[in-house]
Amino acid sequence: MSVEAWTTMFVIISFMLYLYIGWRSRVKDSKGFFVADQGVPAIANGAATAADWMSAASFISMAGLISFLGFDGSMYLMGWTGGFVLLALLLAPYLRKFGKYTVPDFVGDRYYSVWARLVAVVAAIFVSLTYVAGQMRGVGIVFSRFLQVDISTGVIIGMVIVAFFAVLGGMKGITWTQVAQYGVLIVAYLIPAIAISLILTGNPIPQVAFSFSDIVEKLNGVQKANFNFFITSIIIKKKEYKCK
């Protein structure tokens, strides 16, 4: 079975799982739609939040940005991560405390101002559209690479799938779908990290290899050579060493 066939099968199975979760998580009232009846366990919420962080924006764009800009690109990564922390600490708890479902509702009631609510609406729309545009572009790129379709078609497919479980299941469907995506994404992150660590240092634990080996110097070589050529040369050297 070819790599393309395995990839296609894995993508189809993954999205069938997401659609099934969305169907099983369908809700009938506003509380279930907006806050999942406040019944999602903390671990599941943590996994869903982690999957949000490991989205197309970070999984593709952040990695590409750091690869292109080098160390200077890490400032975007820190801002990205810091934003999640600020939202979790300074906004999310108070939405729950006030019993509100949206940021504009919370801001309007908190400051007793229609204008504050309007500003929050405009800010939410602007930020959401900017974020969704990047995410949908990432979805289109992924589909175009693995399913051999153009980016526009990939974006449409992604929008249909997301709309299906978002409309049916609301926050409950989105959260549990994100939990499933977390499992897929964390494996996708770990496989190349472990493989590169094992190839360069012989240690399958990247964190240990990073701390107690010269893997940093070896990885710096990636910036000076084609990645495939660099990895191939490392493999050849390891084989030559074993032959000795």
Automatic annotation (TrEMBL):
The chain crosses the membrane at residues 6-23, 53-71, 77-95, 115-134, 146-167, 179-200. It comes from the Bacteria. GO terms for molecular function: transmembrane transporter activity. It is found in: Membrane. This is Uncharacterized symporter H16_A2524. Signal peptide: none annotated. Pfam families: SSF (PF00474). Belongs to the sodium:solute symporter (SSF) (TC 2.A.21) family. Keywords: Membrane, Transmembrane, Transmembrane helix, Transport. GO terms for cellular component: plasma membrane. It is a multi-pass membrane protein. The keyword Ribonucleoprotein does not apply.
